[in-house]
Write a structure and sequence with these properties.
5 helices; globular; mainly alpha; Haem_Oase-like_multi-hlx
Amino acid sequence: MADAFEAFAGSVLDTGVPDYPAMLRDDLSDLGLSVAGVGAPAAPEGLHPAGVAYVVAGSRLGLASLRRDRFWGKSGGCASRYMTDDAGLNVWRAMAGWMRGARLPASEVSAICDSAVSVFALFEDGLVRSLPEHAG
């Protein structure tokens, strides 16, 4: 899924993306944790890259809001590469511009929306798997 996001951002949005998986691994390592015990949810086949990009790039807006309210990050006593990344906002800006200008057939719009819903579900599953009572 990360590869699809990176390829879409580079080829369609003409922007680079930070290495979010590496940021998350490094943040967990700093906390003495590992992704090995969590088990990543499996992404379904055939996700439309624009649906993936919508969710991943859009998540940067939520993180910016959390940081603005000092909920997370250095000001909240919790330094995090992933949570404090601002480069991803450029991906969102490019995505928003692409969405405004895209003239796509209804079937492709539907595939993008379905993919975005699937990616939101993956985020939810990943969160549930990370909870102590579910960690294995």
